Amino acid sequence: MNPADEAIYAAIQEAQLLRKVTKKKNTQQVQGAERDIIRSTALSWFNNHRKQLTVVFSDIDLAEIDKRHQWIIQASHKSSLRSSYVDVLKEIADLLVAVRAGNAVKLSSAGSQPTTDNPPDFSPVAADAEMKAILEGRWTEITKCIACKTPLAATVMMGGLLEGILYAKITKQANKAPIYTAVAAPKDKLGKTLPPKDWKLQNYIDVAHELKWITQTVKDIGDVLRDYRNYIHPHKQYSEKVTLTSEDAKILWEVSKSITRQVLS
User: Fold this and answer.
1) Which comes out higher in pLDDT, residue 4 or 85?
2) How many structural domains comprise the chain?
3) Contact 22, 38 (CB under 8 A)
């Protein structure tokens, strides 16, 4: 599967899966953490999948798909009707399927690369072969958790993988001064920057954004993943009445893969 076809296929899968998850819940409006997942999926279209398609399609070709993703992003900042999301997600999936089917020849000439569940090349951030192997192992283990339908384990590992990638990138920087002087870098009581090994995922994400390693949209998506990762704490899950499903984990995995590739680029 080539990069463009892989991107459009992933976008179709995400829209269909998100529609299925959204449709089966009972509340009339979409609120709270569910809105964050929906928004993250829409942002993933603009931040990742669409970029792979611009070598094949024009802005006009993608305009109707863009419009519907923009509607989702706007709607996700307030309480919106569940039925509206379900309808728009169906439109997105149908449009993507039509574009893919109608442009099979174009898509077939866009080159080739491994499927998205294969570990990417971690060399840009891995300090040595051992760290590279560890990151690849974590990636592979997450795919196994997804396949075995253990969503909490998968989500916790996604947060750990992102944390590991960002820490590895920091470790590999020859000039660490911008990292230690970053406004978002966590400080101790005396105002001294804590060593990166003592940072939390939020700190890594904030500093990565400040240093322009990731965009604002990816930072927002990373914040969602961080929040869901925190459900490893039983009291947090109990107090917020949230249950992670296998479908949730699949969506978060697509988000995690998107973040990873931007950090590596």
Assistant:
1) 85
2) 2
3) yes
